[in-house]
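Human: If only I could read backbone structure tokens as easily as an amino acid sequence. Take your time, and here it is.
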Amino acid sequence: MIAVVDYNMGNLGSVLNAFAKVGAKAELVSDPERLQAYDRVQLPGVGAFPDAMRSLEDSGMAEAIRDFAQSGKPLMGTCLGMQLLFDESEEFGTHKGLGLIPGRVVRFDETKFDRPHKIPHMGWNELFVRKDSPIFAGLPKEFYLYFVHSYHALCDDECAIGKTHYGYDFVSAVQRENVYGFQPHPEKSHNHGLKIVENFTKL
């Protein structure tokens, strides 16, 4: 069974529907004491980093997610949920994250763009696979996913398993042992996104 963390910051219906489409059982979980009972945890998210972390910390869910990650069972964050996996974010000031992946989250630096681009980065764009990972099983080395974000992660190449170009190259997929993250929305990305969801259920 898969736990989808419910902290009032995610497109939860779409996430649950994606799991259902690949034949997996998933349910919303808002009680941190229940999290360890699940086989896998999905951390979705739409909104601002500081609001999300405040909600997770106040509910006790942040510590429960950290404990789950230490158990070795698969954990995946998507969109804001991926950003929360990092040490900190500069969105609306400097705020600590879950600290599960070394690095920080920054706003797109328009001074580095190869040509003018709109912020937020919204729509379909390519993810380029940089490292082999079981989360990419059955997928090509380049494929399109759906993005909506103004901030992106900075991290060492050791954890960067996928990158995307928008003005410049940025990290769009990460893995550190049993912890995975995707900046795009797999649940909104049709067949390729559903393949990521399916792969997660088989880790």
